[in-house]
Amino acid sequence: MVTSDQRRRQLAREKYARQQQRREESRRKAKRRNTVIAAALAVVLAAGGAVYASVALTGDDSPKDNAAGSDGSASGPTPSQSQSSGAEPKMSVDAKATYAMALKTNEGDITITMDAAKTPRTVNSFHHLAGKKYFDGTKCHRLTTQGIFVLQCGDPKGDGTGGPGYTIPDENLDALGKADAQGSVTYPAGTVAMANTGQPGSGGSQFFLVYKDTKLPPSYTPFGKIDAAGLKVVQDVAAAGVTGGATDGAPKKAVTIEKATVAKK
């Protein structure tokens, strides 16, 4: 015959067993949840590595993204930017004109032709920032040499997280033609496009210079074309590779924009 004391001990053991079972189940659920989160992060990081930027090509304005980086369908890393005023500058450029952005760098001069008729708000933003000497003394912080082929610049922090404190809308996204089955278009060598965070309308001040034809989703505003001499400068930087022998990171041949100006042609 089971005594009341024995019964109490049995009930206590059963209660303890139930508690242990619940704890174990909670641990299993947490482990599964963490595994899912880790897998999702891996996908995000892989995407970012592919173009903040989202070229993603990503940063605060994101080839991290987000040169092609935030960009799921790119086969390599992505292009990817906070500083200055909080509102997009008022329109001050001639929306029917062509402008030239001249970048004087320690590695050579790069001139970028910009068509305000196609990308008026992008050109207006660069005109405004250059006038404020925003780019002067900044480094081109990211070079990618596999999957996508871009040099990313325009971050005042020099680490892919800086931007002007405002964003500008995407423009001219259909300029490079219809996307292929993988959702990508070709950004030809010499193209200059906006980096972003991987989200629409998230461009800031970061931009990327394409030095070799690159497949990316049509998510990055193509707003300029590098002159032949400037393209040679970027290609020479790319030929020197990435610091530490990686395929995505700071260029081994450091590039500093000593002065940037934008003028009507």
UniProtKB/TrEMBL annotation:
**GO terms, molecular function:** peptidyl-prolyl cis-trans isomerase activity
Q: Name the UniProt key words of this record, in alphabetical order.
A: Isomerase
Tell me if Isomerase is a UniProt keyword of this record. Answer: yes
User: Which EC number(s) are documented for this chain?
Assistant: 5.2.1.8
Class of the enzyme per the UniProt entry, highest EC level: isomerase
List, as start-end ranges, the regions of compositional bias called Low complexity: 73-87
| Basic and acidic residues: bias regions | 1-27
Q: Which InterPro entries match?
A: Cyclophilin-like_dom_sf (IPR029000), Cyclophilin-type_PPIase_dom (IPR002130), Cyclophilin_A-like (IPR044666)
Region Disordered, as annotated, extends over 1-33, 63-92
Q: Does the keyword Lipid biosynthesis apply?
A: no
The task this protein performs is described as:
PPIases accelerate the folding of proteins. It catalyzes the cis-trans isomerization of proline imidic peptide bonds in oligopeptides.
PANTHER family this protein is in? PEPTIDYL-PROLYL CIS-TRANS ISOMERASE B-RELATED (PTHR45625:SF3), PEPTIDYL-PROLYL CIS-TRANS ISOMERASE-RELATED (PTHR45625)
What this protein is called in its record is Peptidyl-prolyl cis-trans isomerase
